[in-house]
Amino acid sequence: MFEILENEILAPQLHRLVVRAPRVAAARQAGQFVIVRAAAGEERIPLTIGDADPVAGTITLFVQAVGYSTGRIVAIPAGGALRDVAGPLGVPTHIGQWGRVACVGGGVGTAVLYPLAKALAAAGNEVVTLIGGRAAPYIILRDELAVFSQELVITTEDGSLGRQGFVTAPLAEMIADPARRPGAVFAVGPVPMMKAVAALTRPAGIETVVSLNPVMIDGTGMCGGCRVVVDGEAKFACVDGPEFDGHRVDFDTLSDRLATYREMEAAHRCRLAGKEAA
Amino acid sequence: MTAPLSVKEQLAIPRVKMAELDPELRRAGFAEVNRGLRLEEALREAQRCIQCKSRPCVQGCPVEVAIPEFIGALAENDLPGAAAILRRDNALPAVCGRVCPQESQCEAQCVRGIKGEAVAIGYLERFVADWALEHGERSPVDANSSSAGRAVAVVGCGPAGLTAAGELARKGHQVTIFEALHDTGGVLRYGIPEFRLPKTIIDAEVAELQALGVRIECNVIVGKTLTLEQLRAEYDAVFVANGAGLPMMLDIPGENFKGVYSANEYLTRVNLMGAGRDSAATTPIVIGRHVAVIGGGNTAMDCVRTARRLGAERAMIIYRRSEAEMPARLEEIKHAKEEGVEFLMLTAPLAIGEDGKGWVASLRCQRMELGAPDASGRCRPVAVAGAFFDLPVDVVINAIGTRANPLLTASAPELGLTRWGNILSDEQGATNLTGVYAGGDIVRGGATVILAMGDGKRAAAAIDDYLASP
Prior knowledge:
The complex is a heterodimer of chains A (278) and B (470).
Chain A: E1 2-11, E2 14-20, H1 22-27, E3 33-37, E4 45-53, E5 58-64, H2 68-74, E6 81-82, E7 84-89, E8 100-106, H3 109-122, E9 126-133, H4 142-146, E10 151-156, E11 163-164, H5 168-176, E12 184-188, H6 191-201, E13 207-211, E14 227-230, E15 233-236, H7 237-240, E16 243-245, H8 251-258, H9 262-277
Parallel strand pairs in A: 8-9, 8-12, 9-10, 10-11, 12-13
Antiparallel strand pairs in A: 1-2, 1-6, 2-5, 3-4, 3-7, 4-5, 13-16, 14-15
Chain B: H1 7-12, H2 23-26, H3 39-46, H4 56-59, H5 67-75, H6 79-89, H7 93-99, H8 106-109, H9 121-134, E1 151-155, H10 159-170, E2 174-178, H11 187-190, H12 199-211, E3 215-217, H13 228-234, E4 237-240, E5 246-247, E6 260-262, H14 263-272, E7 290-294, H15 298-309, E8 314-318, H16 330-338, E9 342-344, E10 347-354, E11 360-373, E12 379-392, E13 395-398, E14 402-403, H17 407-410, E15 436-438, H18 441-444, H19 449-468
Parallel strand pairs in B: 1-2, 1-4, 2-3, 4-15, 6-13, 7-8, 7-13, 8-9
Antiparallel strand pairs in B: 5-14, 10-11, 11-12
Helix pairs in contact in B: 3-5, 3-9, 5-6, 5-9, 6-9, 7-9, 10-19, 14-15
């Protein structure tokens, strides 16, 4: 059992959990994830490790309650415990020296972006952070990111905070301005956002790293469920990723595979809701 | 006890047939198909063993169970004696009695099989092992080992790891198994369906090892959570048996459509996570009406029979050679046929088609014929020019095999590997690193439970020798 020390609501349905997992905390590097199960009988859910404190033996997870299983995870209060936490998994982010980098986050992807941006800044890169969301309540971690960002740009679709529109607009301006042009772009968020970012940076020839979140079961390469097409070849996000060259990823296949269980998940939630109501 | 039978009387006994669950009832769930022997049946079958001097069955067994001895004790109705002999040689007899390919191992060597039918060694093993579990018979402990009390880490809680752990614990060592998944058993739990191996049997055999003092830590991924170097620093020896690997891809168009699974993913969802069979389980699975399973091994049979149980009206094996070349056990093929599985032989997959929304809708197949034998000694399948056909299917399962998993090896660059990425080890399982041994699928590629157990047993003996040496 892995004790939950803190459970804080950051935005609608988005929780920040601090979990005691000493071995994971000691081994973890930026870009890696854990596989979590709230309780016996439940799904194995991959979650990016947002932060870690090897001395305290804790890791920080940002969890968006999008489905039944993630809902169960965030429902456990501080003092409770997760049944299983396994990791750290995945290839750590390659932290290079690019001079200026743009870190682009969309929605809950911002939480995945956070450790990455932090590590890039720590390595001496000048970090410009662009985060977007549907509306003001969905903009998360702005203060935390501002600490090490040279510039922080916020966009919302409804204009309730920052600029109205998508993160791609300020990114396009950055790329167009020789004085602000980034040496590399890191993008984490919904698949359409990552696809749009890659489309923007490709003609400009700017190295672009995306972090993918396909359906995953074991997280150790054994099942192959998390396969993504990169350069026409099947790669397993759990052992080869989760970060890939955004210019080589087949985003359409990824979107489609992510939809596999959507209807089933909806039906499952209805059934369970019915049971609870009964 | 009645007077011993004459050889002539022994030879006159027909081989026992094990009761099986009715094929119609099998469709209703995951109840075990083979029902086991009754005591009278087991005693009578044991009397068929003529206790020949040459004991060829033992050579046929990868863990060298003292087969004539345990059967001899059983024939005399000495069940505790039979159980003690069996457990001395085999850490997981209730598992082996169910999933071992006895027909190609011990029973293939049985003298009685030369003229007539071999002794049903596998059935007897299962009977004795189940009796021992029911009656709480403990495994014998070897108190005389000179090296007792050393600490050994075992990586992987599958058949190789469990066997090595049991052997080492019985010699008095402190054994800790590190398992990447959240539960024990490795492939026994996520890969083998309950209709062949009930989870209660795995639980009981694992509990037996824990009673011997074996510690098991789940959710630890060696190579990620802990490194091999850390284990080498903290333990006197390490046995690596992390198994499975990565699924091989079919490399045909349409492999990423919704409804295409690797065998490991399909079986893990159902067996480990309870998808499709336990209403409380929250892991989803696509239930197919028409399911095509590509491959001809035991894993393919497990997938196709599982698909049938989950409700497939049509469940098909697609195999590019003929039935004679299929690597699956005869019993699995027989059971699959009884359950209504269709066998499409000399058929190779060419492409997967979709329904316009990204869901699997069809499988384009190529008819094959057998050519000259290839390097494997089996006839090579050759495409019949222009002979294609389309099968309407909504789930496709790829059961063509796995390749080496790099998780552990990538984090231990000094560990010697083969060109395929498997760990290089000698006959005893020793790697190029002092005190590090390896076995099971990570060494030999995808193989059987009993071969992995044989590796575990040999490596445990070598580790014990290593720990005893000054």
